[in-house]
Amino acid sequence: MDNALLMNARARVLADLEARRHATPAAVSALEDACSARQWWAEQWPQGEVYVAGLVAQDVQDALLETAGRWPLCLGCGADAPEHALYIQPDLGGPDPVWVCEESGQAVAPLGGL
Question: 4 and 39 in contact (C-beta within 8 Å)?
Answer without folding.
Answer: no
